[in-house]
Amino acid sequence: MTDDTRTTAEQARGVRYARELEGHLGWLDTFSGTALGVLATASGIYTYLGVSSLLDENGAMSVFAAIAYSVAVSVGIFVFWSYMMRLFPAVRSARARIGLMLAMGAGSLAIVAMSSWLNAAALAGSAAVEQHLAKTVQDYQTSLERAHEVALTGQSLERDVARVRQSFEDLSEQEAAGSLSGLAGRGAVFRVLRQKSAELSGLEGQISAQTPLVEAAFTEGNAILSRMRALTVEPGPVEARSVEFSEQAVRLAGLITQLRQLTVAPLVERAAQDLAASVVLPELDGGTTEGRADQAATISSVLEVLAQRATTLERAAQAVQALQPTTDVTYTPISSADAVILYARNFVPSWAGAIAIDLLPAVLVFILAITQSAIRGGREGAAIEDTLTLAELRAAMAAMRDVEKTMHEHDAPAAKPRPLPQQAAE
Predict the structure, then answer these.
(1) Which residue ranges does UniProt annotate as crossing the membrane (predicted)?
(2) Of 50, 67, 141, 337, most Cβ neighbours within 10 A?
(3) 373 CB-near residues (< 8 Å, 6+ apart)
(4) pLDDT under 50 in the chain at which residues?
């Protein structure tokens, strides 16, 4: 077999392959436009649902605006992908294909911006809003528990105050027995010790009175949190649930603020500062000069101990106040579209479906481009007569016969004119 014969056989196979692909494309073209129209219509429907969730009013004008926008999106998607499906497979130069690729990329971004995120809002909008409610509940729970923890830490200062009070009471009992100044009875030293013991006892009572308030606020806050959790999973429209959720959030924020104000650390710090600074020294009542000197020395020692204990209390209160405060939590109602964007990571399947329904025709464009390239490759190098189909050959032969007939009539001698009747009579 010669090279020319082998080349001719390969060209014939390429032509048959190209004709087979053209037959498949001809069959696919019968419903490709319909399929593209269905995809564009479906995207428009979900776009309408997404736009409706963004509009505050439910009047006729709002409905008309949503319909107009969704129709515009459907028409835009259909026209854009129709252009791409016709033009991209037809171009041959690399420059033209790169240009159309850039145009397709820009158009795809525009479609995502004007349609896909609204489709995602329609697919997962309610779930995204519920996700926002659940996250807000978690934030409020963290803030409530932190406020309760700080308040309980402040309440634990009651034990420090009680310990200091008890130490002064023990010292006063020792003074009453004459173990400190050497003068038994309830003299000047005894009265100083009892004075500070009474102050600390009053502070201890104030701290103790705060404990029921802290526990009541924490219990009520947990009850509100339970109701807010129930609202996140209850059936029904999420918009109605969001209204009640907002009311509960306002109540809970007030309780958290109340818990912050119930902490006794600032009170203990001020009391510790006043403990050593405000001492009313009684008149020394010793019977002798030596006894009064002993009382004065004992009172000085008591004041030193008092200053040390006051510093200890002050540092403990400052340590409580230095604890990390609760973070301010504020519930902000958001629309379903904003919620889908804010919690996009939690709704990847919905985003994928919303984008796929708009960008699926891009796959068809690349399929057509590959097929058209294969068709051109199969026909490359083949003679024109090898690429003609039977219908095209019949049409060409009919055209040739028409041309030959026209040329024959043009070359034939013109017929003599028939004589008029008068001429014939003559």
Answers:
(1) 26-49, 61-84, 96-118, 351-370
(2) 50
(3) 89
(4) 280, 385, 414-416, 423-426
- Nearest-angstrom CA–CA distance, 87 and 33: 15
- Tell me how far apart the alpha carbons of residues 167 and 170 are, in angstroms, rounded to a whole number: 5
Two tokens at 135? Answer: 């996250």
User: For helices 289-321 and 117-155, what crossing angle results, to 10°?
Assistant: 170
- pLDDT digit string (tens) for 336-383? 878 888 888 888 888 888 888 888 899 888 888 888 887 777 666 555
Structure tokens at 229: 């959790």
Q: Say how far apart CA 338 and CA 329 lie, in whole Å.
A: 19
Residue 154: closest CA among 254, 259, 307, 257? 259
* SS3 category, 67: helix
pLDDT, residue 331, reads 84
Q: List the one residue out of 118, 120, 106 whose CA is nearest residue 66.
A: 118
Instruction: Give the C-alpha separation, 91 to 214, whole Å.
Output: 77
Distance CA 225, CA 243 (A): 15
Indicate if the alpha-carbon torsion angle 270, 273, 276, 282 is positive or negative: negative
Structure tokens at 258: 């109340």
pTM score over 0.90 = no
Q: What is the pLDDT of residue 103?
A: 92
Encoded amino acid at 14, one letter: G
